[in-house]
Amino acid sequence: MVRSGAKPAKVLLDGEYLDKSPGYRIDVEIARGNTGAAVYRAERAGFEDVAVKYPVTHSELGALKAIRSRSPDCPGVLQMTSSGTYNGGLYVVMPMLGPCLSKLFERLLDMPPADRWTVVSTVGRMLLRSLEGIHRCGIVHCDVQPNNILVGKVNDARAKKNAPFRPFFIDFGCARSFPGGLPMDGRWGSLDFNSIRSAGGGERDPHDDLESLGWVLCHAFAGELPWFPFTVHAWEVGMWKGEAVDAACREVQQAKLQVRCRGWSSFGPSWAHLEDIPEQLSEYLRTCWTCPRGRAPDYAVLAELLGAPAGRDAEDMEEADLAFFNEEVVPLLDLADLSLM
């Protein structure tokens, strides 16, 4: 997954303390993004290990604080437990999480299509509810992609007993307020999953997040999408500098417009397997594309396209999806990764 907009990062060293209080000691770097920030495993005497992201931008910290203040129980959004400043950079502290959805998607392609769609649609409904909660807080994520969705432990006491795990959105480094957020260049986010409209730049809104989720679910069901080879090659040859970035954005945008206007079959015999993508998922994307920008998304309609019974209470649906996710999906993941949390 290619994400542009990289910049130099400040680095924390193993064994380094963020400060004397709360006294988080850096254990090891566990992930580094292309935008310059890294996530570290850290420890504090007498407490469970945590994840520290450093450095973070003021806008990311503001988004996390807004969600914590306006919707502390927002499903699928990991609440930060602390934040501060170290060596001139901001950091946030969060609970540890397990594997990203890319790990799950790798295991789905061997499943029969009907079973695969059951898993993909369930995960899709859970992520849709998360995005609705984020949007109700006046925040747009702007970087919905599999590597920014990790499996973690649910905080709700009732869920912990029988359904302790759930997918969580992370990395609000590209997040913007909505309405009134600062415009974003088309290169920001993940080109593989950005919405068609976002390639042209401007203010992003909830529709962009929802379309991105649609592309993520297409990838989950079908594997590689037609523009993936191009973005991988573009990254390898260094197309993420200057005007070449804009050309890459337009190239991927045109491929997605081809899906919209001519369908998956237009990519030829080598991509014939994409025609197996469920019609409900194609209709989900069409619904994202046709909803007027000034109108709030109809999350209920989108949920129904992903298999939610019409009129069913969202909280009740969340409990049912949590149960299925833990019974049928978690066993597909590496238990060693889950044990790290």
Automatic annotation (TrEMBL):
Could you tell me which InterPro entries the record lists for this protein? Answer: CK1_Ser-Thr_kinase, Kinase-like_dom_sf, Prot_kinase_dom
Superkingdom assignment: Eukaryota
Supply the Pfam families for this chain: Pkinase (PF00069)
Q: Which PROSITE patterns match?
A: PROTEIN_KINASE_DOM
Molecular function via GO: ATP binding; protein kinase activity
Query: Where, if anywhere, are coiled coils annotated?
Result: none
Where is each Protein kinase domain found? Answer: 24-306
- SMART domains for this protein: S_TKc
The entry's protein name is Casein kinase I
Species:
Alexandrium monilatum
